[in-house]
Amino acid sequence: MRESPYPMISVEAAIETILQHVRPLTPVTINFTDALGFVLAEDIDASEAMPPFAASAVDGYAVIAADPSPVRRVIGAQPAGSMGTLTVTPGSAVHVMTGAPLPAGADAVVMIEHTSPEGDSSIRLHVQPAAGDNVRPIGQDLAAGQRVLSHGTVLGAAEIGLLATIGRTHVSVYPRPRVAVLSTGDELVDPHEQPRPGQIRDSNRYSLLSAVREAGGQPLDWGRIPDRAEAVQEALESALRQADAVLTSGGVSMGELDLIKPYLAARGTIHFGRVRARPGKPVTFATVDGIPVFAMPGFPVSALVSFEVYVRPALLKMAGHTHLYRPRQRVIIEHAIRHEPDRVEFQRAVVRRHPDGRYTAHTTGYQGSGRLLSMVGANALLVLPAEQETFPAGSELEAWLIAPVRDVETPANN
Ligand code: AMP
Ligand code: MG
Question: How does DSSP classify residue 46?
């Protein structure tokens, strides 16, 4: 019996080891219009108050609230966009538009819907206003100097709008990690090619490039590498020079042409080379010149599940995220599940939420590590602990939610 020289560590220890060796990338300054999805690398304060002047919140008439007269003479109009010169006095009103500065003297605005015309140049109020009605005071939304966005915030639509509001056109963010993705294997051909006997199409490069992009990284297609030591070396060396992280597939098992581990061991430090998990036992993590190298096993499901479990949190950390993990949910399994109890297993599953709030899961059929179809449509990795072989229907297990959970249709939803 030949044993791998690499100790088999737990999934938790593997993730922890990786996170100890990856760091947020050096921040860069970018235009705010390019900043969607980036993580802020600075705190941002509002330079000015918002609104910067007392403004009408509605279309209507600016008045003095304490003035008891039900009819007011309209002395002019105040549009949005400039400061006016009109002053409201007892018995008068100024027609104002939404967003217009409140005219001098006025302390309330009566909505146009609560007024009616009275003669040629007056209006009648149908409500008695109180001071402040329909007026947005200076600084109601933002005070000058107020912290509006904190370091670590993920910039979404609202945050981009806020940056525009306060005139912050450039922001410091963590860059997206550039990840060189390459596949190894003499049996592989490109997707457009017709495989000859003994060959198969390379799928990992495409699933992993997509997974990198989905995780917010910049995927760099580093190609398909034959199982020759010089080719592996050449590809990895160029990747290490140009990328923030390297992601390989294949060539980490016990075969004679599994060249990735020997190369990494000679050139850098392998932090682990086996994990007590199925799929993905031979998943390998190394650093070379400080660059993290994630070596995925070749079986398509092993590669993608290993990416999900080990690589995605690392890429998120490099991109400045502090929330690194998928949501975890206790679920009730809809059918009995058996597995080999020697390792923890991540089975691909569909989790659904029921009207009564329960979450249930069923697996996606045959769970072989070559069967990519077992991941198609799956929204969860169902965690089957080691040491237990059978899980009866109705058992509760943990699921890692990798895509949104659907609600079970109820008649009312149709
Ligand atoms: P390996 O990890 O290189 O021993 O490969 C394990 C299995 O995964 C073999 O059956 C390979 O043919 C298959 N495989 C390796 N790389 C890929 C790939 N890029 N796309 C699809 N299958 C692959
Ligand atoms: Mg191979």
Answer: -
Pairing between β-strand 277-278 and β-strand 344-353 as defined by DSSP bridges: parallel
Q: Does the beta carbon of 249 sit less than 6 angstroms from any atom of ligand 1?
A: yes
Q: 401 near 327, Cβ under 8 Å? A: yes
Structure tokens belonging to residue 195: 């495989």
Tens of pLDDT along 228-251? 999 999 999 999 999 999 999 999
Could you tell me the two tokens for 275? Answer: 């994990």
Chain-centroid distance of CA 277 in Å reads 26
Q: What is the pLDDT of residues 129-140, one digit of tens each?
A: 999 999 999 999
Contact 1, 299 (CB under 8 A): no
**What angle do the packed helices 229-242 and 260-267 form, to 10 degrees?**
50
Measured from the CA of 187, which atom of ligand 1 is nearest? 12
Report whether 312 contacts 305 (CB < 8 A): no
Distance (Å) from CA 226 to ligand 2 centroid? 9
- 26-66, pLDDT tens digit by residue? 999 999 999 999 999 999 999 999 999 999 999 999 999 99
Asked if residue 182 lies in contact with residue 248, where contact means CB atoms within 8 angstroms, the answer is yes
CA distance 289 to 257: 24
Which ligand 1 atom is the nearest neighbour of the CA of 227? Answer: 3
The CA distances from residue 146 to 17, 139, 149, 162, 235, in Å, are 39, 10, 9, 12, 50
